[in-house]
Write a structure and sequence with these properties.
about 325 residues; alpha/beta; 3-stranded antiparallel sheet; 9 helices; about 30% helix; globular
């Protein structure tokens, strides 16, 4: 058997050393703090957060759109050495970006991200291929390249741009191939994906995206992942939130978590970082009753002792890169100040 030290992996800026995978937790301040309190060891190597280019809410000032408190300034103070995976919402703002009307917002965002002095995985227009975002492929690529050019002009070196697909089982917006949204190898640092219900439906989009990443020699970030439709607290499964099927903790682990970790380990050459959403979706107005956004459930690993035990067994494996005094050096990042 190969040791983790000898595994050959796809390289990339801020990618972990061979044989390692970076672990990140999300996705709002309250649930991140709850996780850190409930699972004090091992601690993640980073956190996820969200903002929009139009408003830039949730960075220097707290905001809550109904999906938990978002306040990135507060998150960066949780750990001296950690990374940020930031989702940048671009819906209905691509034209403003390309036209130059958003230049002041771009400069403001980049100045804030540089001030954090840590690696930032910027998920520009995340889930670009989701029908709910309705991104026109050509306009999306133009906006991406425009933003990336502004980054280069400002000399921003602590931000990598992540091209995140929804990898949705029911297809892409207008059923277009994902290549239609691809800005080009010279403009993309990482490829991202979302991992929710695919294990119980169709994993083909996941496999296709990993194949794409390997062809283009790009490392992959699982940018959003949670056992959608399962409740780790109530031990149930539901597709609608109207009727529920009892599931034991063991069944939930075997049906979602075990395939999730198997997917990560089987594709360790290309999957270099993983972000898990550890939240009680049902308690948040955006995701809870009457479930206008579908039924999401409860993905908190600490809500069940058996699931937490299995979770800790996975996260304590030596392959996971977690918070540590040498995290930045292992990611090839040097402080700017």
């Amino acid at each position: 058997m190969k040791s983790v030290e000898t595994e050959k992996t796809i390289p990339g800026k801020f990618a972990p050393p061979d044989g390692k995978q970076l672990f990140i937790i999300g996705q709002d301040n309250d649930t991140i703090n709850d996780y850190l309190n409930a699972v004090p060891n091992p601690q993640p190597g980073g956190f996820t957060s969200y903002t929009s280019l139009r408003e830039l809410h949730g960075l220097n000032t707290p905001t809550d759109y109904g999906a938990g408190l978002v306040f990135l300034d507060d998150l960066v103070n949780l750990q001296l050495q950690s990374v940020i995976a930031l989702g940048l919402y671009m819906v209905d703002f691509l034209e403003s970006t390309v036209s130059g009307a958003a230049d002041e917002k771009i400069d403001q965002l980049l100045d804030i991200l540089v001030s954090y002095d840590r690696p930032v995985f910027l998920r520009f227009g995340y889930e670009f291929d989701g029908s709910w975002n309705h991104y026109d492929p050509e306009l999306y690529k133009q906006a991406w390249i425009y933003f990336r050019t502004k980054m280069q002009e400002k000399g921003v070196s602590n931000v990598v741009m992540v091209w995140q697909s929804a990898a949705y089982s029911e297809g892409t917006y207008l059923q277009k191939p994902i290549e239609d949204w691809y800005p080009g190898d010279e403009f993309v640092d990482w490829i991202g994906l979302s991992f929710f219900t695919q294990v119980s439906s169709d994993t083909t989009p996941l496999a296709n995206l990993l194949a794409f990443a390997r062809r283009h020699n790009k490392p992959v970030l699982i940018a959003e992942a949670a056992p959608q439709r399962y409740s780790t607290s109530n031990l149930t499964y539901s597709t609608t939130g109207q009727s529920f099927i009892a599931r034991s903790a063991e069944a939930i682990w075997q049906e979602w978590y075990a395939p999730f970790f198997a997917f990560i380990y089987e594709n360790k050459d290309v999957i270099r970082a993983v972000a898990y959403i550890n939240t009680n979706w049902d308690s948040q107005p955006m995701w809870g009753p009457p479930y206008k956004e579908g039924y999401w459930g409860d993905s908190r690993v600490q809500a069940n002792d058996l699931i937490l035990g299995y979770w800790l067994a996975e996260l304590n494996k030596p392959r996971w890169l977690l918070v540590s005094p040498d995290l930045y050096s292992l990611l090839g990042y040097q402080h700017q100040y």
